[in-house]
Predict the 3D structure of the following.
Amino acid sequence: MKTQEPNLPQKPTWMQLLWSWLASDVASPGKPVLDKKEVDWPRVIPFIALHVGCAAVVWVGWSWTAVIVAVAAYLIRMFAITGFYHRYFSHRTFKTHRFTQFAFAVMGNAAAQRGPLWWAAHHREHHRHSDTELDVHSPHHHGVLWSHMGWFTAKGAYMTNLAAVPDLAKYPELRFIDRFDIVVPAAYAILLLAAGALLELYVPSLGVTAGQMFVWGFLISTVVLYHATYTINSLSHMIGSRRFKTTDTSRNNFVLALITLGEGWHNNHHYFPGAVRQGFYWWELDVTYYCLWALSKLGLVWDLNAVPERVYAKAEAMRESAA
């Protein structure tokens, strides 16, 4: 009697692999999602390539123009992540026009941190299960490295949980850039190359080249932005002070607030995530809040959720009890 061969998973073709990079909601071809901690190595290739590509700075060199573009790209995209991916899409701490919503979704997407629906869905789940075993990036349950940058490389992490973001899933333009989340970063990289080539050709006095604009403005700026953002998942639950007693281990950290434009006031945020500002006091630097306040004066955003007086009363009571 002939033995039936088991159904073994097929290796993905190059076309399937390329499509999985382009369409983020497509599961890894040829293998089911079984282990949430099993790294999807084929789909992580672009992430690894960005890091390796930074070494090209040895060949392209640097110029003040390239460095300034890199810093500007870091700040603009960081604000799009902190102000809109986080405080707007994830927590709805203010209101805005549909056009402004989309414009900053595109800017946030240019940071190559996936789409706005994917980002918000994961972050809402983080708040529901913060620092429990169900929190996919808790450093206390899954380790520091996994909480910092391992969790989003897992096979179970690539799909967008639309059930967690029904308020956002109704917008087709957001659905599009969420599914095809590689399009905007790729267009941004091409734009930098083109701008660098034009400056190299027509304004040689700047000393900038197409290679410098790409390496500094896209690769280095994006990778630094990655790891600055990731510290909020890892280090902000390990290092810093705790003003409020919360059910998790969130902490306030000035240094992390500095590099993330205000996200480092993480204990404040976890105590009252509905507030548009995370630096609850004037001495807690929160650049993202200042920028959102400025946008509100221009009429681009409105109804910024303030920190309630009861929260300040609780903070005062905690201070007095600790004195």
